[in-house]
Design brief:
- The protein is of the alpha+beta class.
- It folds into two domains: 29-108, no CATH class; 113-293, Jelly Rolls (Sandwich).
- It is 37% helix and 25% strand.
């Protein structure tokens, strides 16, 4: 009995020792929980500034109010941000927590603009085939600047299908040019590829689509969300730059029996999105060689 108690005490002591050795954030810097709360409020402040119609002026006021709310100065925030940018694992944890909070907020509010598709698919002709996280937080620093996805087609995909990537985006920027990039690519049965790319510089609701117009059959769907690093000379690389993507859906729409209706539905949804943002690439879906998709991206 005494030996069992002794072993238990030793185990507890060992666990306490491990916990005591866990890396902590130096006291001069904002601690992770507080940093997460500040970044969360920054997101709300950024949305308020965008809605006010005077981003450049109100954004500074709202961001200052956020720091005052949490009891920190701009110097405190900037020095802490530099620390986190140099300790990417801790920053990654904060990003993951933020993505969950943004996702939970969207669900609690009944969703946002992307929920126009909430009732789509009751007939079985349309389905949301997205199986990854529905919210992402991207920063210009690697490896947090890009999220890639890939989906193998199965028997649920039909010839002539239309694929639409639908999402909401928001930016939290202290300075610099905003350049988010989203790409959707489809590999067909003959290994030809069609793709669409859109550049984002403001928050809002967007959707891009690729159609199997030649009814070849779809083998694979790929794509990525990316936040490009600004190349502006002299720009501060330690200021806050985030792109939040939420409400992500990848809609697969059959067009075999109800092709006119499905096409009209997709056209209507694309027009709604294009009113808010026009892609910088032509709206066609050119066929490109397989090797082009796998070339390294340049910034």
């Amino acid at each position: 009995m005494k030996q069992a108690i002794l072993k238990t005490v030793m185990c507890v002591g060992f666990l306490m020792l491990i916990a005591g050795c866990k890396p902590t954030i130096p006291s001069p810097y904002i601690q992770p929980d507080e940093m997460e709360d500040i970044l969360y409020d920054y997101h709300l402040a950024d949305a308020m500034a965008s809605a006010s119609g005077n981003d450049s002026v109100n954004m500074v006021k709202y961001h200052t109010a956020v720091l005052q709310k949490h009891g920190y100065t701009e110097a405190d925030f900037d020095s802490s941000l530099v620390y986190y940018l140099r300790h990417t694992e801790q920053l990654k944890t904060i990003y993951e927590n933020l993505a969950k909070r943004f996702r939970d907020e969207s669900v609690a509010l009944g969703g946002s603009a992307g929920d126009a598709f909430a009732n789509v698919g009751l007939t079985g002709d349309t389905a949301n085939v997205w199986r990854e996280e529905t919210s992402l937080v991207l920063a210009p620093q690697k490896p947090f600047n890009q999220h890639s996805f890939s989906l193998k087609a199965d028997s649920a995909f039909h010839k002539g299908d239309v694929l639409m990537l639908d999402f909401n985006s928001d930016f939290i920027y202290q300075d610099g040019m905003r350049d988010g990039v989203v790409m959707l690519s489809v590999r067909f049965s003959n290994d030809s590829i069609a793709s669409q790319t859109v550049h984002l510089s403001t928050g809002g609701h967007s959707s891009i689509r690729v159609s199997d117009d030649k009814r070849l059959g779809i083998k694979e769907v790929r794509g990525f969300f990316m936040l490009s690093r600004s190349q502006s000379p002299g720009e501060n690389t330690t200021t806050l730059k985030l792109m939040i993507v939420s409400g992500i859906r990848l809609l697969r729409m059959h067009a075999s029996q109800e092709k006119p209706e499905m096409k009209a539905q997709a056209d209507s949804l694309s027009r709604d999105s294009s009113r808010q943002r026009q892609p910088l690439t032509p709206p066609s879906t050119p066929m490109i060689p397989e090797g082009e998709l796998n070339k390294p991206m340049t910034r």
